[in-house]
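User: For documentation purposes, I need each entry recorded in a consistent format: the amino acid sequence on its own, followed directly by the corresponding structure tokens. There are two entries in this batch. Please keep commentary to a minimum and don't merge the entries.

Assistant: Recorded as requested. Entry 1:
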Amino acid sequence: MFCKKWMAAAALGTLLLTGHAMAEDKKVIAVSIPAADHGWTAGVVYHAQTAAKEINAAFPGVEVIVKTSPSAADQVSAIEDLSASRKIDALVILPYSSEELTEPVKAIKEKGTFITVVDRGLTDPTIQGLYVAGDNIAVGRNTAKYMIDKLGGRGDLVVLRGIPTVIDDERIKGFQDAIAGTGLKVLDIQYAHWNSDEAFKLMQDYLAKYPHIDAVWANDDDMLLGVLEAVKQSGRTDIKLALGGNGMKDIVKKVIDGDTMTPVETPYPPSMIKTAIYMTMANLVGQAPVRGAVKLDAPLITKDNAKEYFFPDSPF
């Protein structure tokens, strides 16, 4: 009896020691992303948490930790605290802002951490081992090409920008390069900070200032919602098109339903964070290393293919 108890205790001790060793040997992937301050970032949080849940359940040798931050300063503190408290094998980061996060991320890399950057790049791209983003120039270009075709190459436009970032600059460049040399004229272009309420107010200003507008481009779907509400309240009938970008489910549903003012959309899926997390994990679990840049295409979402892009359970 004593022998059996001793053996059982020894076996339990061995299991505890083994479990402790396995916990110590786990590969840790830290995921640092902005808090859900608008629709697209809400989608990022949703997909990051989904990836963490899936990986933590399926891969006992990997632990994914997701941290959200409401500002650049908070994000710096979050990744510094994580790095100081435990060994991080990989960091997947969607920087709140490029400049403020570059040096802190570089310091973490110098500890031997693999760095994956998503969407908003750092000012020093040599820090990253992997970069995953959408094609922002294509978002602008493909939207412009559709407008050119639909308006017969002529028309007066107003444009709403997001925030002063490389992403916004690229979207505007793609759009402006595509309409160059056509009869499409931009009457006004101002920032609405990817915010529906700001876009609503800016569109009201546009409507008051310009008696005739053929089309509107809000380069993000949160802003497009504000634009559409302003147009609806105005009762104006001259506006033929109001287009956005990013693939928000509410806008994709309009495309599915054959909405005449918003008949197409361009994707910029927040699920790219999930792709980045899985690709990062491949670098840690003995699979072939994944390095370099991955750029997602931005094909037009039309009524013919919109159901492929419609995810009603997503927050975005």
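Entry 2:
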Amino acid sequence: MNKEFVVTEDGSHTIYLPEMDEHYHSTHGAIQESLHIYINQGLFQVPKQEISILEIGFGTGLNAYLTFAYGNRKLLNINYFSIEKYPLTETDYLKLNYPENIFPEYSDVFEKLHRAEWNSVVKISPEFSLQKVHADLLSFEFNSLPQFDLVYYDAFAPGKQPEMWTDEIIREVASSVSKDGILVTYCAKGSVRRAFSAAGFLMERIPGPIGKKEILRGKKTI
């Protein structure tokens, strides 16, 4: 698909897909959105020093980049697993300006995250391992996964890709989350909340980032 690079209100890039009429991140600020949802309401809510993370949609790599940086600051050991059907090309990810806007000292890490070999475990640093899987979520074998402490559910919106938010897919993702594991997503639709609740999460609506009233966070109860 054609891609347009857009500068959001906090100065950081997002990508716009005209064919889907969809942005990868909020136009109110890509970095501020990811920080609020996935770092503050996700990573910082896990009371462990060693954390296994499942990300649905590697996308621009922004969530992984921020997780690396804040994990490094907090001396966390992180195992990061991400499923992505449509990886960005080198031409695409080299246009993104995240390291210019936050943690420029880790600009080499941002490139390492993208250059890491697909379908293999890659040590980005002694404390951060990454496994990016080039796969379609709809046909992915979840029984091959370990149990995760935290899930970043960052697929495109249900209105654009409803197949990524079905009860069946959500149950499959939930099967890979350990008891008391946490899930966060920008999507606050009632149908999504009910699907995660039915899959074993105690869900709550919490305030969203700038430009979004609410997001969802859940804790696995079974």
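Summary note for entry 2:
The chain has one domain: 29-220.
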